[in-house]
Write a structure and sequence with these properties.
One of its GO terms (molecular function) is hydrolase activity. It holds the Pfam family NUDIX. Residues 7-96 form the Nudix hydrolase domain. The chain has a single domain (11-95), classed as Alpha-Beta Complex (Nucleoside Triphosphate Pyrophosphohydrolase), CATH 3.90.79.10. Helices cover 14% and strands 34% of the residues. It contains one helix and six strands. The protein has a four-stranded mixed sheet with strand order 4-1-6-5, covered by helices on one side. Strands 2-3 form a two-stranded antiparallel ribbon. The longest helix is centred in the middle third of the chain and has 13 residues, at 52-64. The protein is globular and about 60 Å long.
């Protein structure tokens, strides 16, 4: 008898505000994906051995080209996202 294993992946997302308190968003684009075109916070899946603040900084750099010091954790929650199921970790960006 085969055991069914549900796969989950942790992820971290950045809540980045500018001096006017505007939130930085990125656009999710995967052709054919039902959520393609949706706006989201910069972020993504954790690499093996990374901590949430490291993931947040790496994803911010990869998706926007911005470097930032990652602040304290704002919160976390389980969330479903097609085949990924991230644990959201919203972090505050402080300009470096």
């Amino acid at each position: 008898m085969l055991m069914k294993i549900e796969w989950q992946r942790a992820a971290a997302y950045v809540t980045a505000l500018d001096a006017k308190r505007r939130v930085l968003l990125t656009r999710f684009e995967i052709p054919g994906h039902p959520k393609s075109g949706s706006w989201t916070l910069p972020g993504g899946g954790m690499e093996w051995g990374e901590q949430a603040h490291q993931t947040a900084a790496r994803e911010l750099r990869e998706e926007t080209g911005l470097e930032a010091e990652i602040g304290s954790l704002l919160g976390s929650s389980p969330s479903g996202f097609t085949q990924m199921h991230p644990i959201l970790a919203n972090l505050v960006m402080h300009s470096a």
